Amino acid sequence: MTATLLLEQVFNGLQAGITLFLIAAGLTLILGIMDFVFLAHGSQVMIGAYAASAVTIATNNFYLGILAAIPITFFCGYLLEWLIIRHLYRRDHMDQVLATFGLILFFNEAIRITFGPAALFSNFPPSLAGFIEILPDTPYPVFRILIILVGLVCAVAIHLFVSRTRVGAMVRAGASNPEMTAALGINIKILFRFIFAAGATFAGLAGMMIGPLTSVEPGMGEPLLILSLVVIIIGGIGSVRGAFIAAIIIGLVDTIGRVMLPMLFRTFMSGPTADTAGPALASMSVYILMAVVLVFKPTGLFPPKGA
Amino acid sequence: MDNKIITAALAAGFLASASVAFAETIKVGYMTTLSGGAGIIGKQMKNAVELAMEHKGGKLGGMDAEVIFVDDQRKPDVAKQLANKLIKSEKVDVIGGIIWSNLMMAIHKQVTRADTLLISSNAGPSPLAGSNCHKNFVSMSWQNDQTPEAMGKYMNSAGVKSVYAMAPNYQAGKDMIEGFKRFYKGEIVSEVYTKLGQTDFQAELSVLRAAKPAATFIFQPGGMGVNFVKQWNQAGMDNVSKLYTVFSVDGISLPALKDTALGTISTQTWSPDLDNAINNRFVADYKSKFGGYPSFYAAQAYDTILAIDHAVAKSGSKDTAKMRAVLAAGDIPTTRGSLQMNSNQFPIQNFYLREVVKDTDGVVTSKIIDTVFENHGDAYAQDCKF
To answer: In this complex, which of A214, A259, A275 lies closest to B191 when CB atoms are compared?
Structure first.
């Protein structure tokens, strides 16, 4: 493997990691701050992708699709919290798992009824279809670089919001002691609702950005949800910084493992055996990493202070 | 008085049974996947079966007919239960459909042993074509290896020197590459097995770009095909390597791919532009009724009903042995022309090379550009002894 190829794989890993971070950021706050097990976060990704694709198809304008999809996903998150989630905060985790698993089935079926079972057409506009030479003779798609940039901007914005703003301070206070925060006159219920809706919007944004790359179909968010759960466990539940670092690690390990492990196995095994063992181990690599982290740091790499 | 009642009752009973005998009904159980991610395939097959029944005026071979659709949910255990229900409580005469090979392997024994005719609309696993074949099993599709064999032969004869092969890491993925290699004699640069259900292939495409193979052969069915072809196009890979596919770009994925799939090459036994009276009527009516091109799955589902119609009409009966004898004799009118049968009751048919093009209305579809195999039988028929 040459250095340029390795660099290209680092970019691929970064892009995958950034996408995961956008999904995991909301999930880690919902689980960490609200102590709420929310399994239907993958559905928010699907809603974002469908909203953007449907508006893009109707208006024939990709940017309009994104502009419309952002408020749609925010509103969906807000409505979901108000209708269902707020009634479940005080229930035990098993009830939350059951209820939000039911929501996954509901959303997948609702999308199937509305848009049909076939994958929806989605592609980015020709203006974003170009390439940038990240190194001489190594073209990299502009759209994927754009995903990395948007993700980084979101990461910085979330970090500044949580650590520097007054509302961010309320979020952190609400996380460590909700009763005391409420007693100080802060409307914790409205606060939670906005965190939930913001988390849904970031997950939706991930869906909008990967929609043109993958097939927009019912249930598209679930494989990403599983990886996001791995991310927040490795990063430390409730920690946005941890989620960011863990997402990048997972993106890199998964991408580079998938490419390198089969090559590595072929150096000391026969072809067919290596072709079976390599990809099998590669698909397990992120879970092995999670297990190792759990053994040595059961609260994750960057648990929030006071947790 | 009592006698009169008994006589009347007997007469009524006799008349009732006589009327049943006069209006004999053939019952067909049609099993496909209607829910979950592959639900779109089952939906197209159900559409095609309903269209076939409409074309036949609701009768099969002139006999009153009833079709019962069941959803196997792509689960072998569910398929087994449904097959049992169709045989024992619905008492169907024929079971048709079945997309997936593992589901077919799960149900074929119980169906064929119950002396019910089993007609595959898609799955063609090698054991059922060879040593485990059964006289009550008939295929209206192909044996799994044949389509990649056709691609292998085409690429060999087209003088493609080296190829980079990619398929998901599961049994069918490996079978497809084996079938391909049976007829392709050039160099295989690399065999890459991706994760089943993988959504992003960018990492694999980066490696492929660095390897610069003249040709790339893929088997990525369903949503994986949509992802792969889209990302292939977005990464500008057409300038690096030429893409050859089997079961990855079809009537199911084209509406999601549109222009990104233009120029993609695949092999198949059927194509919407196959020019014969049955196919022209099928494609035209399917498009006007369901608003879009049918896929090969739909065509094979349509052919399954035509085969039952032919068997009943020619034998004048819904008896399994008699229907089977008609089908084994071949000459079955289908969307692929008059279909001949091999000794293992799999079709002997042509395999075509297809290219993705735009039709006159600007809709993306497949068009035949060459015939790779004429009257091609599968490699397992010699092992089949009924």
So the answer is: A275
Rounded CA gap, B152 and B183, in Å? 5
Q: Nearest by CB to A215, from B195, B210, B227: name it.
A: B227
Q: How far apart are CA B308 and CA B323, in angstroms?
A: 8
The total of other beta-carbon atoms located within 10 Å of residue B374's CB is: 9
Angle, helices B171-183/B146-157, rounded to nearest 10 degrees: 40
pLDDT digits (tens, 9 = 90+) for B37-66: 788 899 999 999 999 999 999 999 999 999
Q: Which residues of B touch A262 (CB under 8 A)?
A: 192-193
- Chain A closest-CA separation from residue B227 CA (Å): 5
Mutate to test the interface with B, among A19, A121, A260 (most CBs of B within 10 A): A121
Smallest CA–CA distance, residue A130 to chain B, in Å, is 9
Contact check, Cβ <8 Å, A213/B204: no
Query: pLDDT tens across A11-26, in order?
Result: 999 999 999 999 999 8
Does residue B117 contact residue B322 with C-beta atoms inside 8 Å? no
> Which of A104, A214, A225, A253 to probe the B interface (max B CBs under 10 A)?
A214
The residue type found at B372 is V
Whole-structure pTM over 0.95, yes or no? no
Domains of chain B, start order:
12-142+275-345 (3.40.50.2300), 146-268+352-376 (3.40.50.2300)
Structural domains of chain A ordered from first start: 12-296 (1.10.3470)
Q: Which uninterrupted H or E stretch holds B307? A: helix B296-315
Could you tell me what percentage of chain B is helix, strand and coil, using 3-state DSSP and rounding each to the nearest 5?
A: 45, 25, 30
Indicate if ipTM > 0.90. no
Residues of B in contact with A278 (CB under 8 A): 193
Half-sphere exposure of B370 (CA within 13 A, CB side): 14
Q: Give dist(CA B104, CA B121) in Å, integer.
A: 11
Please answer yes or no on whether B258 and A119 come within 8 Å at the CB atom.
Answer: no
- Is the pLDDT confidence value at A156 over 80? yes
